Structure formats: structure tokens, C-alpha cells
Amino acid sequence: MLSPEASAEPGKWDTKRAEFQRGIMDAIADPAIEEVVVMKSAQVGWTEIINNTVGYFVDQDPAPVMVLQPTLEMAEAWSTDRLAPMVRDTPCLKARIADPKSRDSGNKLLQKRFPGGQLVMVGANSPSSLASRPIRVVLADEVDRYPASAGQEGDPLELAYKRTTTFWNRRKLSGSTPTIAGASRIEAKFLESDQRYYFVPCGECGTFQALRWEQVKWEKTAAGGHLPETAWYECGHCAAKWDDSDRCAAVLLGKWRATAPFNGIAGFHIWEAYSAWVKLATTVKNFLEARKKPDTYKVWTNTALGLPWVEKGEAPDWQRLYERRSQELRLGEPPEWVGRITVGADVQRVPPRIEASVWGWGEGLRSVLIDHRVFHGDPAVEDVWKQMDAFLQEEWETPSGRRLRMSKLAIDTGDGQSTTHVYGWARRHPREVMAIKGVGSFNASVPVMGPTWADLTVRGRKVERGVQLWTIAVSIFKSETYHWLKLDQPLDGQPHPPGYIHLPMGVDAEWLQQLVAEQLITVKNKRTGFSRQEWQKTRDRNEAIDCRVYARAAAYSIGLDRWSAKQWARASGQVLRRAEVPADAAPAVEPTTQQSSPDPDAAPSSPTTKRARAVNPLTGRSRGSFLKRR
């Protein structure tokens, strides 16, 4: 029984509402099939498939059952929000699983006993919950969200599957929305299976076919505007137009067909075009919105199409980038639209030096290379850090005379030999400098993580004003950078697309070759059999792309991704420039021992600089109390 708390259509379960689910659930009970894999989109009733499977092995075929969720918290939520209402409203289950409030029930939140078996709910992030216990049926939910290892024990999915070894009639079910191609657990499992797709008949020609996104069509206006509400599915054989009712009628008559040899694993792929709860117009509308940004397009591919996202890691052609350098831009001079400046710095050993790229940012995360500097010297010697001290105080002037200083500098902590020296310098400049460490994961929840405290006392306490270490997902920022480098130049009079990277005159061929010096490749782990994607260098020197990634991480850390158009207008001087301040207005900044930034939102250049007491020239009110709170 579907409960009102967990379903939009409460009442008795009816498989005909989603006929494609029948083949998946029948495969779970098929004695010839040991493992079932489902690579899916959202909105296909996957949770109800798990619920029905649990109910089957409680009522019809009692056995020890394990439901594996990505975390213990999610396991508890599933027990409370899904399992408990189903047991309460389904008479046959209520008769077999005792009320947990009963003194002699033996039931807990994550463990339910019933005649002939038990149901345990565990989290993939908890090694102790995966400890040795005999399990005949493992139901693994959202396996692509599992950690790579459960503590030090290894892959949590394989640990759970090992619990079934002693059962001749074991069953293993795993399902998930996929993530990154080559790094997705569910994709790897699906490719090992017989790869079944759901074929449906055309109402006109009767030809069976698997639904494909390429066959979803919609009309456009004469000016090229999209009309998602006109969406239809076009038969791949006779070009007949199916509306939503035709599509749902075809799904009722569909059949699962394997496209690869069967080797004991039944694999199913299903996406939202088969769902009666999703209209084609909604899918198209979501697609048109998602494709505006790489991150949202990736999520749409995973959750709507049920397909892994293929990272296009081909490096842009450096000759093309060289030819499209802007004649209006010069190194050392930020254009007027720049509102913030961040810097990425990379420590190199041979020859010993620090390279730094200065990037300017504008609305829509448009960016421009302002400068690239090389500071020669051994990081173990103080001289090079004195050069970096002076670099922190530098300013860059726009054509109108507006002066900008860097808002944040992100510096790599190196390979170990220079780490303590980088920490020492970052410790002297806690406001302007962020010490970073890169990781290659594509599955990071956020691209900039942390901080963690690098300075601790002998008792493990954080040292006040000590060094903070930030972890950045360099793979995500590299993919983003290469995507933005491939954006086409706009036609005359058209705005630049969000993320467009401007390259000024003065950028040489060597720097551009460093910017595109890496390639995304798929590497297979011989021990586990899983594949992963990683960036590898195609030439020895790649400082330009590293510095770009670090500067991008600095921009992310100060919140530029979340800025509104109004914030960008204020930062770039479009709201109120110095020349526009009335002559009788109060002075914007009281005199200090050091020239402060004209931008009232800019951070002080050093923790030793006296705080400026800014006055709003429009209202005449002092911002001193606000700065003090900051």
C-alpha cells in the first residue's frame, strides 16, 4: 500500500502506472538471475521498487535483507519516511513486523525482525554497519554517492556483497543515477550486464523502439525562440508524432530487450521519457534552462536522461586561442568591466621560482588575464617571499583611472619540500592569502572545501590566527576552464556569454600552450576493475593552467559565483564612480598611513593596515561600525 506521506497517489500499488517496473521486479525474483543493476534517471519510481522488493522478501520469501544507503542518516530517513508508513498501511507486513514500541518486538530504527529473517539498514560511510553478518539479499540505493572506501575497509558495495557469499540463492540489487562517465559505479555495473532497454511500439507503424532523447522535438518561433510546450516524440521509423498520451499508451505495451549476452547480471536503463509523471514539455523546458551552464547541464544529463556525464577533456587548440586574442586588451591593464581581481600562484622547484597569474573577473564570471609574473628564488630563502610581499601591495589601473588590488591570492602548498615555507608566508597574510591543496576528484560536493587548520597545539587545539588549508577539486575547475575557452566569440554588438575568457595582446605562444597542456583520459584500476577519469599533462610545463585554476578557486572562495548584477555593477564602478561624487560631499576615506582601495567593499591589503573609516557619499553615514563588525 502506498502511504499518503510518501506518495502522490496513495492506495493499493498498481504496476500498470509504470509498466516498465514489472520487468525489473520480476528479475529480482528470477532464480536464474543473481544480480540486478538499474541505471536510471529521477522520477521513475525507483524507491518504490526497493520498497516492493523489501516487502516481497518479508512476506513471500523471508530472508536476511540489507538495505544499503549512502550514509547512516539517509538509512535512518528511509526507515522513518518510507519503510515505517509502508509497514503500517500494508496488512501483511504489519502482521509480520512487530511494532517497535512493543517491549518484546526486538525492533530498532535500523533493524527489523520478522519470522524467517531480518531487515537491516546501513550506511556506506560506516564500516561498523557493514561488519560481518550473513545476508542473503542486498539492496543498494544510489551507489554512485557511496564513498570510495568505508573507512580503511575498502569499497562499501563489495563489502556488502561479500555478506551474501554463503547463500546459494543470494540476490544483489544496485541502482543509481549515474555521475561521471568512467568514474560511475552504476555505469561500470551496467556495462558488465546484458544491458536491457525498454522497447515500445509506435501507434502508427507498430515498430518497437527504445526511446531516445534525440527523437524529442519541439517548435521554434520565426526568430529562433524555443516553444517547449509544443514538444512531441517523433517515431524513429515513420516520423509519426506522439503526444504525451500516445507515449504513455506505448509504454503500457513495452517490453524489455537485452542488447548484450547474459552472464548472470541483468542490467536495466530507464529514463524519464518512460514516466507517466513527467511531461515532455517539462523535460524540454528543463533542458533549455540546464544547458546555459555546464554544471546544471551535467545534472540534467544524470537526472533526466539517466546517463553518465561525459567530460569533454580535449584541450582547445592553442593556435586558435592565439589568433583570437583581443586587440583592445593589453597585459597589465584591466578593462572597465572588471570588478574583482584574484591571483593563482604555483611553487616550482626546477628552476626554483614562484609563478603567479593575475585574473580579473566581471559579471557572469567573464574573466581576463591581467598579468603573469615569475618570482625567481628558492622558496626556502626569504628573498623570494619579500618579492611576494611587495606583489600583494600592487595595484592595476583601468583606462578610466580606477585602481584595483587583488582580493585574494591562492597559493599551492607544493609537494612537501616547500609546504612549510608556504605556510609561513600565508601565516603572515591571513586575509589576503589562502593556502590550498588540490585533489583530482570529480565527485566533490563543492569545488572548494574547508578550511582545515594546519596549525595545532600539542593537545590538538587550533592555534588562533594559524594557517588554514583549503582543498580544491582541480578537475572540476579544469573542465570548466576548457569549456569556457571553447566558447565562440560573440558577433558584433552581442554580449559575451557567461564564463567567456578574454586573452589580451601580449600573451605569447608558450603561455597559451601551458594553458592547454592537460588532457582528460580514462584510467582503469587493474586491482578493482573500476575506471576513473583523470587529467594528465601532454607537455612538461603546465604552470598557466595550474595558476588559472588556483585563481578561479580564489574567486569561488570570496563568493563571486553568487554575485548579482547589482553587486557587479557596484564593484566595477558603474553605480558611483569617484568622478561622480559631488564636490561638497564628505571625504570617502579618512587619511591613513597607506592608500586604501577606492572600492569600499575591498578587503584591507594587510592585517597591519589601519582600518579605513569609510563614509557613504550619498548618505553621509559612516561605515565604521560596520567595518568593525566585519
UniProtKB/TrEMBL annotation:
Residues 583-607 have a biased composition (Low complexity). Residues 583-630 are annotated as: Disordered. InterPro entries: GpA_ATPase, GpA_endonuclease, P-loop_NTPase, Phage_lambda_GpA-like, TFA_Chaperone. It comes from the Bacteria. Residues 7-256 form the Phage terminase large subunit GpA ATPase domain. This is Phage terminase large subunit family protein. Residues 265-562 form the Terminase large subunit GpA endonuclease domain. It comes from Sphingomonas morindae.
